[in-house]
Amino acid sequence: MLDHVSIQAADIDAAVAFYVDVFQSLGLHEVLRYGGDDGPFVGIAGVDDFPRFWVNPLVDHGTRPIHLAFTAPTRHAVDEVYRRAVTRGVEILHAPRVWPQYHAAYYGVFLRDPDGNNVEAVCHAAE
After folding, report:
1. CA-to-CA distance for 127 and 118, rounded, in angstroms?
2. pTM for the full model?
3. 44 burial class (0-12, 13-18, 19+ CB within 10 angstroms)?
4. Quick check: 52 and 4 in contact, CB under 8 A?
5. For the segment 27-82, what is each residue's pLDDT rounded down to a tens digit?
6. CA 24, CA 82: separation in Å to the nearest integer?
């Protein structure tokens, strides 16, 4: 179980805007922002209002793509992430669908964030 995750972003405001807008149907929203020597650190929360996802200033300019998966409460929420991403012109890696190789009810969409990371919204409930 993870308590929180942080990523580095070249443009903090662009990254925060991406996550808060595209993953709005999952309840993601900015809850904390504080300054550091290299720029702001931004805490993003879900429905529990606890900053479990952090966007931090870029300090390592090497290749560092990661994969993040956000839990969606319904398949409709996954579809809404997809719709919002398409509206923003986000690169879609995989449109929403069932991924039976993971388990029979695994329904997810995969996207690229502004820094090239592979991000996902996934619902584990059968519908």
Report:
1. 25
2. 0.81
3. buried
4. yes
5. 999 999 998 888 899 999 999 999 999 999 988 777 667 889 999 999 999 999 99
6. 11
Task: Give Cα 68 distance to the centre of its chain.
Answer: 6
Residues 111 and 42: their CA atoms lie apart, in Å, by: 21
Q: Which residues pair with 7 in a beta bridge?
A: 55
**Which tens digit of pLDDT belongs to each residue from 1-40?**
567 898 999 999 999 999 999 999 999 999 999 988 888 9
User: For residue 27, with 0-12 CB atoms within 10 Å meaning exposed, 13-18 middle and 19 or more buried, which class applies?
Assistant: middle
Tokens at 95, concatenated:
């449109």
Phi, psi of 118 (to 5 degrees): -90, 110
Per-residue b/e over 70-108, b at no fewer than 16 CB within 10 Å? bebeebebbbbbbebbeeeebeeeeebebeeeeeeebbb
